[in-house]
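Narrative of activities, Objective 1.

The group set out to show that a structural description can be obtained from nothing but a protein's sequence at a throughput compatible with the screening campaign. Below is one input-output pair from the validation batch, recorded exactly as produced.
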Amino acid sequence: MKEEFIKKYNNHEYISNDLYLNVLANYSGAVPSNFNIDTYNDIVLEKLYLLNKDYFDNFYKDIDSNIKLDKEQCKAILSDEKYSLIIAGAGTGKTTTMASKVKYLVEKKNVLPEKILVLSYTRKATEELDKRICLDFNIPAHVTTFHSLGYEYIREIFNNRKCVILDRNKKREIFLEYFKNLYLDKNKITEIINNFDTVKQMKNFVFSKFFIDNYQKFNTYDELIEYYVSVKLNEAKTVGTINLIKSWIERQLQKDENIISINGDYVKSAGEAVIANFLYKRGLSYSYEEAYPELMENNIIYKPDFTIDYAGEKIYIEYFGLEDENYNKIKLEKEKYHKEHNNKFIEIERTSLSNIVRILDNKLRELNVEYNERTNEEIYEHILRLNPLSQVYPFEYFMYSSIKYLKSSAYREDKTVIKKYIMTLKGEEKQNVMIEAKYFLDFYNYYSNKLYGGEYYYFDFDDLLYYAVKYIEKLTSETHLLFDYIIIDEYQDISNIKYELTMKTAKRNDAKVFAVGDDWQSIYSFSGSRIEYIYNFTNYFKGAKLFKINKTYRNSQELINLSGQFVMKNNSQIKKDLVSDKHIDKPIIIKTFDGTKSDKEEINLLKNTILEIYGDSPDHKILVLGRTNRIIDNLYDDESFFDGIESSLVFKNYEDIDIEAMTMHKSKGLTFDDVIIIGLNTSFPSVKTGMTWIEKLYRNEVIDEGIPFAEERRLFYVALTRTKNHVYLLCDKNLKKDSEFITEIYGIMKGDMGKN
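Output recorded for this entry:
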């Protein structure tokens, strides 16, 4: 340690803060008097930057000549800390910085690509990083999500078992089996109905009114559902089954998640739903994501999107619904796999929903597949039967959400938490909680036994990380999951369990950690993220060093100033001095409508704003944002808009306008030419109320940042900074009906612009 410090100092090499602090604590005499580590390293980095400037200037020459690394990015890449946090503001090029760090490590520091682990949160972000690193740079680093890494650890730990990630369909199957048994005891059902009231569960009911009115009449739950189906089929005679089917399918295709096919499968996209519905309507027997009988390399279970059983043979269908060069790699792997196994294989690439039907129909006919068309009556009856839990959904939701709270809690292993909590209660509240706890724990035990009691071991998302952390020390592999560098994306979103996974992986490998994040964009506490991990990075990683990347390539300086002043009302956040070469005089435009005239005034203003942008800049991509899914879904109630592929919004008679619509949360990380924000009323910022006792007991405590709605403020900041040019805020002329954030933004803007 001392020798390493002296050698680096004498050679004018970069000295990590971790090494310096250790030498200072144990060999203080080795540190020169008046030595300042920051000043020393600044000089070293400046020399290294000048030495490598030509190298960095040509980094992206053959990929995208418009991408240039700035000085702050280069210095972050050149630094060689044990632990470092790169604070990268919105639009500063964090993906570029991360990918460039990998390229530099491989080309200049001779680090083997397989020794570099790059972690991100979502599949989409991972694919973007994988494209840049593995495809553009041709560096086969290990780029993955936290959950996929956990899955890799689990496959190593349980290497003699078939390990499967639990999906929504399997969860529904488990709960249905449990509830059918519970239903046999009507006293228990009555107790649940009497105990789970509307206030506690924040639902209109724990079971449907139909269920409550009829459950005593039938011996089994199946009999009740049969009666429900017969009642609905009789009602359908007056409406027409074809209209009911169309309405049901349209509702599903408008969803962003939890899309259900006619056959009852929870599919991942509207494109997959169209394929599934086509197969069902044509009377073809298929399975969705059925595991292929043989494992792929590294014990990976391959699950084709669709497997058709036809005339004693299997036909496999894959829908490649993403537009990304990296997807070609996945596509080629699957094509090769099916070719090696001499399978009948149909592949469909991203296209319009109507084209999917045409392509699939042609390819099935080429394979001489004959259809056995189902009638509308058969289809509607199947829709009614496909979700037998529809009558008890709030009860199912309570169970699974409660399990998630428990599993993501620091008290997961403490079996006495609920018992201790009940002991603090009195009277009726105590009795109610005791009853709810009884049924919750009963299902939790049933659920746990179902996960690990058969041929397959099923792991839900919380289990993937939990068991990986729990057993990581037991890994004995000398060739797999060994890393020298761990590079982490979106560090502001890290949770307790992800932090533990990162730390244990780093300690197991004595790896260096290079984390990139922006506390101003921390908006996922509802899924377990803890902002204190980025606020207090140097406490969690002793000897860590912080770097800042301040130059943004997305927003104008004027928008940076306005949005920065808004978000930094929270003094707990890390101060940044973001700069941009771009200038736009009035980047935020507030437009108002008169809500007293009709409930269509906001959507009419939205249409006019879209046409205004289109008139000035026909090639601009427009993003429409709302706080909630409901706000976005309501757009489709207007006859002028209809759903396109994934998040695209089609404007009737103006189909060539490139528009997407989504929630603020889903927009994070995206860039559009112009942004329009709707639904800016008093329901934003959103206030979460009425939590169940189990949520209060197990949820992660949100730290006090000293300001109300801290995360909602950051969410609005994220929405404001998605634009390259202007952001349009649509709000009511009556300020009393507007979000308090509008009043605040207007106050910041006052003097520069006014309401239109």
